[in-house]
């Protein structure tokens, strides 16, 4: 299949002044050579967004929402193509890619139905006070490589619904889905409203420090989030930062081990462990420690690794070379500081494959436990009791998600209430949707995404205060 290779700048699909070679992480074969922006093309995208913004805002909420709905329909029509591109550039199994594409459409459709009505807080013979929300201007959306369609679309939709215009910049190893979203947008939105540019990991600073950019919405690592905050400080840019995580699952002694092992395995190894909201460390009560370790290890050992387009594949490759090196590094840490009971090996061949790996008899203080491994390498730590698990889970600079597993709802809830993370699940992990707000605590982020809470972050609150 020939995929989109062109960028969208000012309503036109254009070649780049440079090119970017996209590799299939399962084979390292070239999937496509796509456009890559020069600095002047990135600046042209910001300039086009700036020119287009006032008319787009004037068009009105309902008209913008109608166009977003048309956009959701068009994404649905191109869903098979998007899913295949996603597997080829990102590596995830086709069923996971299809799931991401249907979420991409669902997020756009959900946003199209949201409003932020004017609030009248006083209206009497003395005066009238209205609180309204206005667009900010040009929004830059920067995304990582793990969810190449959902993350850009979930930034685009609320930004433009609120009357802003956008410049999207995907990760250099997975640009094709974002370029396709740009191509689809070209036939629906006026020129300049949506722009998509790619880079070689070198245009982020230019875009996030540009004086004509009012807001940056970023998903990626905490280290890059810090740079973006620094870059935005000169012009006090509005920021939404969805950053790294090191989600803990605290498993109490009253669980049904086999059923819980299924869910924990899925939530840890989904997308080969490369999900911000994946379980990255398991704290298991000593009473069920060994049986849970064995049950999760059995699932990891049985998992079928392969190319995402093969029907039998349950776990795909690591997405890129740097991340592959990281995964191997964390396997070595597991070997040194714990006991590997499943996986621990690289699959022979050209692709970036490691077997799903489970490590027991490991402690806090190991880099595999303390850092965000973002790989299919799961440490399981023995805890004395629920309080011990809670204290260990909270001893982290991150606070994206966390979960408590117990058959006693009251017991689970009392631990859940004290977990320091933006999302806390009970007896599940990784469940999310456009109707659920998403925020990171501590150094996992700033701001909120999705729902009206997230939509409001693409607006400026403005008060009209009249006196009679
Ligand atoms: P990354 O921070 O290296 O890159 C993310 C994006 O930022 C890429 O598009 C990259 O080109 C761009 N970038 C790089 N330097 C930049 C700079 N100086 N200024 C602006 N942009 C710059 O992250 P990654 O390795 O692509 O993704 C993995 C990370 O993303 C993990 O830490 C993961 O937890 C995080 N993540 C978070 C969420 C969330 O919602 N919290 C979701 C997915 C991924």
TrEMBL record:
Keyword field: Oxidoreductase
Keyword field contains Oxidoreductase: yes
Residues forming the catalytic site: 242
InterPro entries hit by this protein: Ald_DH/histidinol_DH, Ald_DH_C, Ald_DH_CS_CYS, Ald_DH_CS_GLU, Ald_DH_N, Aldehyde_DH_dom, LUC3-like
Record-annotated Aldehyde dehydrogenase domain positions: 18-463
Domain of life: Bacteria
Family of this protein: Belongs to the aldehyde dehydrogenase family.
Protein name: Aldehyde dehydrogenase family protein
Species classification: Bacteria, Pseudomonadati, Pseudomonadota, Betaproteobacteria, Burkholderiales
């Amino acid at each position: 299949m020939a995929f989109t290779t062109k960028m969208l700048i000012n309503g036109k699909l254009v070649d780049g002044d440079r090119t970017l070679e996209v590799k299939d992480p399962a084979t390292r074969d070239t999937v496509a050579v796509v456009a890559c922006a020069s600095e002047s093309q990135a600046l042209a995208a910001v300039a086009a967004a700036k020119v287009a913004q006032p008319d787009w805002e004037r068009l009105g909420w309902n008209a913008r929402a109608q166009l977003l709905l048309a956009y959701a329909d068009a994404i649905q029509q191109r869903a098979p193509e998007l899913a295949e591109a996603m597997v080829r550039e990102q590596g995830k199994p086709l069923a996971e890619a299809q799931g991401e594409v249907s979420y991409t459409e669902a997020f756009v459709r959900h946003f199209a139905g949201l409003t932020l009505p004017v609030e009248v807080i006083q209206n009497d013979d003395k005066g009238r006070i209205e609180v309204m929300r206005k667009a900010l201007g040009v929004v830059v959306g920067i995304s990582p490589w793990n969810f190449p369609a959902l993350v850009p679309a979930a930034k685009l939709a609320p930004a433009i619904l609120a009357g802003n215009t956008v410049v999207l910049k995907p990760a250099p190893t997975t640009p094709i889905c974002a370029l396709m979203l740009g191509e689809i947008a070209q036939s629906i939105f006026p020129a300049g409203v949506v722009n998509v540019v790619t880079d070689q990991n070198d245009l982020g600073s230019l875009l996030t420090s540009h004086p004509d950019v009012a807001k940056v919405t970023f998903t990626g690592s905490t280290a890059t989030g810090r740079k973006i905050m620094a870059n935005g400080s000169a012009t006090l840019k509005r920021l939404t930062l969805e950053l790294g995580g090191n989600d803990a699952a605290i498993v109490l002694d009253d669980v049904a081990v086999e059923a819980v092992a299924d869910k924990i395995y899925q939530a840890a190894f989904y997308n080969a462990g490369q999900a911000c909201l994946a379980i990255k460390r398991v704290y298991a009560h000593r009473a069920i420690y060994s049986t849970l370790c064995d049950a999760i290890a059995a699932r990891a050992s049985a998992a079928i690794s392969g190319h995402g387009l093969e029907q039998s594949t349950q776990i795909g490759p690591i997405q890129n070379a740097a991340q592959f090196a990281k995964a191997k590094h964390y396997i070595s840490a597991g070997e040194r500081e714990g006991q590997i009971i499943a996986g621990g090996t690289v699959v022979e061949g050209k692709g970036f494959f490691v077997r799903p790996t489970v490590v027991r008899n490991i402690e806090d203080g190991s880099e595999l436990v303390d850092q965000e491994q973002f790989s299919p390498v799961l440490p399981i730590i023995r805890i004395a009791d629920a309080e011990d698990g809670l204290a260990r889970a909270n001893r982290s600079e991150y606070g994206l998600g966390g979960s408590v597993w117990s058959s006693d709802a009251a017991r689970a809830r009392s631990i859940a209430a004290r977990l320091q993370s933006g999302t806390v699940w009970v007896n599940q992990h990784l469940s999310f949707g456009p109707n659920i707000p998403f925020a990171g605590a501590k150094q996992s982020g700033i701001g909120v995404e999705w729902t009206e809470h997230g939509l409001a972050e693409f607006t400026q609150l403005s008060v009209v205060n009249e006196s009679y």
